[in-house]
Amino acid sequence: MSDRVRVNPIACEAHGMCAELLPERITLDPWGYPIVDGERLAGAQVEHAMRAARACPTFALLLDRDGNGPRARRPPQPARRSQ
Amino acid sequence: MSLLAAAGPSVYWYLTRATGAVALLLLTLALVLGVIDVERWSSPAWPRFVVDSLHRNVALFALAFLLAHILTAVLDSFASIPITDAVIPFVGSYRPLWLGLGAVAFDLILAVIITSLLRARIGFTAWRAVHWLVYASWPIALLHGFGTGSDATSSWLLALSGLCMALVLGAVIARAVRGWPANLGLRRAALGGTGAFSLFVLLWLPSGPLGAEWARRSGTPSSLLGHHRARTAVAGRTR
Amino acid sequence: MSSATSAPAESRAADRSAQARLPRLFAGIAAEGALTLAEHVAIHGPAPQLGGRGRRAKDRAGLLIDEVQRAGLLGRGGAAFPLATKMRAVATSRRRGIVLVNATEGEPASLKDRTLLEALPHLALDGGVLAAEAVGADEVIVCVCETAQEAAAGAEHAIAERARSGAARSPKLHLATVPSHYVAGQESALVNFLGGGPALPTFTPPLPFEQGLRRRPTLVNNAETLAHLALIARHGAAWFREIGTPAQAGSALVTLSGPVRHPGVYEIEHGSSLASLVHAAGGTTTHLRGALLGGYAGSWIGAQHLDSLVLSSEHLAPLGASLGAGVVLLLSDQACPVAETARVARWLSGQSARQCGPCEHGLDALAGTLEDIARGAAPTREVDRLAALVARRGACGHPDGAVNLILSALDAFAADFAEHARLGPCDSCSTRAELPLPHRPVNRNGSGRPGARA
After folding, report:
1. CA triple B139-B141-B144, angle to 5 deg
2. Less crowded by CB within 10 Å, the N or C end of chain C?
């Protein structure tokens, strides 16, 4: 089980709710955009991450479960490649 | 006839009036919270996610009162208002224009709320395009309230409407002004439309709903006109 | 600049032997005009037949991809991604693929791709068609930027020649013109534009070779990469690897500009020396301050390294540099590297797609800080702070490239930066501007026509 959060920087409009709801993994830069720690989430944090992803007004916060795609009922994506 | 008049207005009439007023207030609060939300205002005691949640929940709350308002209006035996009048505007027999405006406002609000609940499926751009309809639904709801309410002259309702109008005016002006001059055409149109609407309401109210014989002029069926006069007069007086 | 004798021994050997095995891509290149189809076939031989359906066709296609893998052909657009990997991903997908021949060349100091299309269009077209046949794609779109009119004309003419020659090969082959701003040639931006949207990058995954144009797997390759493929298909992987280095086999096209007698596009062997390239270009006209390798997403190298510089990844990586899209920009010693870096940073900031906050705000802040440093109004450590905030936080590589350029400048010209931070502008700051920074406003309009825009 490896759950991680990541952000779609194009969709992100710096609303800032993610940093409030998952401060363990997300801080805001001087311009209000999220700096995301992409490490694995600890057990209890997954719930908070789900809530943060739901709260994002533009769907910019993505939660990857077990290397699959974001949880918002999109078809599972192939394993992430390093870019 | 006199029996009915002597009985006074049914409980549904009171309920539809009350739930309508509360719905208007809640819709106003939802709009104001929406503007606070999109302007990204926050404080240590009011974080962003709280403002956002509050906006969503107040809107749902408003919908609940709106549904109660519609249901009690249908159940009220005074005027024959079938349930279809709630979504299909202008076809009813009771004050068709003013009731119809309520149906239009309800349709718009339904569209906004349904698309918000299905936000994840329809995507952000489509969701936002529909969401802007709230700025149309609010003034339509207000006009519906002035035109349909059989007690538009009551002072508490006028005061409540005035308060709501002031709140919405403040929110819309704040939204249009912050970020000036980006999208200048849109902002100017918003301020212009808001100003025109406010002016219209101020000029129309005295000669319209607050004027003489509004019940007849607004399209109340003639068979109900007498009853209506009985309701607004001292209770118990018969024809 | 000193002669080739100061370069390391193995590169001198490479320089000498390469003269026997070069040119490859540039074989038969005319001083003006393009090679006709007949001339192209006369020099390189006919392209191998890969088309058709059935088991044998699939085998032939698979063999070509194997050959490309053995050749170790890496992308020549800057990212150096192994071509075989991309081809296999598209070939094994269930949906039918599309091939994009990327000759958009948004890098201002690069001319190699438009040169290929102007002078040797059939190389890139062969490569595109062979790649399409190998991966089972039914369409090849050659992408040029709207300011490269001669390249577009060359490609159109060559496409018409192929049609007339009656080869009647299966992949549909046509041209598309694309806006000329910097990020328009990025893979996902190209797919976005051809699909009807603006020429701006999109969020990945999925990458284009997984799901691209019209949701089909899309093989996007630099025009030069496909030109090499065309020759590997004819002569094989062993031939390709006869020159070059173990990590970077074969030859490469390099655009050399700056204070040399004959700036232009040259074909070099990987592992040859910068000195031999400069010698082939007639030598320098002044002393050099440094060189920018790879373009505006690349790295600066100080003058002290240039005499012995070898153009291969093995030698450049330890210096934090790479050839990238084959760009070598020489800077004269009359230019001010601090002012030039600040100008490039401001240009790169202007070229941001402005879709991602960290790029839009961060590059602007970086450019402003560099301008302040040039005026003596900011400390250099402010650049490091901002660079850490910007890197890897955009949807595409644009902010990373800018950060790479800026940090490499601070490294290569540390003394100049320290001096400017302390004392303010020097004489050269405002008098000389050597690096080419064309006016290319970012075009945010969609193409509006899903498919391709001719």
Report:
1. 110
2. C
Give pLDDT tens digits for B13-24.
889 989 999 999
Neighbours of chain B (3+ CB pairs under 8 A): A
Assess whether pLDDT exceeds 70 at residue B194. yes
Name the residue with tokens 């296999």: C88
List of chain C residues with pLDDT < 50: 1-6, 18, 453-454
pLDDT of residue C453: 42
Range in B100-114, B144-158, C108-122 the model is least confident about: B144-158
Binding-face residues of A in 21-80 toward B, CB within 8 A: 21, 32, 55, 57-59, 72-73
Question: pLDDT at position A1, please?
Answer: 65
Which residues of A fall within a CB distance of 8 Å from C207? 81
Cα C264 from Cα C115, distance rounded (Å) = 10
Strand partners, C221: C101
Interchain contact, A17 vs B124, CB within 8 Å: no
CA nearest to A34, candidates A23, A49, A43 = A23
**What mean pLDDT do residues B23-35 have?**
97
Closest by CA to B116, choosing from B190, B167, B191, B59, is B59
- From B56's Cα to the closest Cα of chain A, the distance in A is 11
Report the SS3 class of residue B62.
helix
3-state secondary structure of C205: coil
Cross-chain residue pair A8–C389, CB shorter than 8 Å = no
- In this complex, whether C and B touch, counting 3 or more CB pairs under 8 angstroms, is no
The residues that bridge with C293 in the sheet, in sequence order, are: C299, C328
Interface confidence, given as ipTM, is 0.87
| DSSP class per residue in A6-35 | EE-TTT-----HHHHH-TTTEEE-TTS-EE
Query: What pTM was computed for the model?
Result: 0.86
The answer to whether the beta carbons of residues C404 and C392 sit under 8 Å apart is no
Out of B2-6, B67-71, C235-239, pick the least confident: B2-6
Q: Do A15 and B120 touch (CB under 8 A)?
A: no
Inter-chain touch B124–A55, beta carbons under 8 Å: no
Residue labelled with tokens 């026997």: C20
Here the tokens at position C242 are 């006869």
Q: What share of chain A is helix, strand, coil (3-state, %, to 5)?
A: 20, 20, 60
Residue with more model confidence, C17 or A25: A25
Per residue in C405-440, is it b (16+ CB within 10 Å) or e — as a string? bbbbbbebbeebbeebbeeeeeebbeeeebbebeeb
Confidence of residue B135 (pLDDT cuts 50, 70, 90): very high
- pLDDT attached to residue C309: 95
